[in-house]
Design brief:
Strand content: 5-15%
Bound molecules: glutathione
Shape: globular
Strand order of the largest sheet: 2-1-3-4
Number of strands: 4
Radius of gyration: 17 Å
Order of helices and strands: EHEHEEHHHHHH
Number of domains: 2
Amino acid sequence: MSHYTLHGIWASGPTYKVALMLALTGAKFDYVHVDLLKGAQKQPDYVKKNPFGVVPTLISNTTGHVYCQSGAILEHLAHASGKYLGQTSDEQHSAKGWVLWGWDRLARGVYRSRAAKFGFMKMPPDVADHYRADALSALKFLDERLAAHKWIAGGAQPTYADIDLYGVVHYVPQAGMDLSDFPHVAAWAAKIEALPHFAQPEALMSKG
Ligand SMILES: N[C@@H](CCC(=O)N[C@@H](CS)C(=O)NCC(=O)O)C(=O)O
């Protein structure tokens, strides 16, 4: 029996983060496609599970417990598996801080620039420029951090914060930005892609 069921959509960055963390920690999971275009995430039975009305949602197949919000889900999976948690309490605290920074400073600019480029989201040019500038500024900050630290939380091993932020950085080229402008981020992303059991979104989730 699989350990978890992941509800999401393969093109969603937050869903990919969770699928990737499941793969990297060796947790088997079933996958249920949520059709965002048809508004499935706002239907009563979905909102009963995920009151935020968004993907992803992760459900434990053994306890039935429901986990929402990708950053919190990754933290749960790190605790549950004992992998990617951080080796000291300082590192664990730092990992949590970077996940929060990711949502505050990095994710919006990258995800919205990608959504605008793919036509999922319509926005006036000055708004698109604003999101792009936000993403570039956050990537510069991340690059400076990774110039001085091997992994984002500052330890010798990767933590769930690396996987969380990778789930945004993965989409930088699709958002129309060049990762080679941020060489330390590019080198760090390559190290994550070399971790055992790393997989691309298409390999982890069906498209429909
Ligand atoms: N902070 C949330 C963000 C999730 C999110 O924004 N999901 C998008 C897809 S990438 C979604 O479900 N959008 C549909 C909607 O807002 O109705 C998380 O990390 O789980």
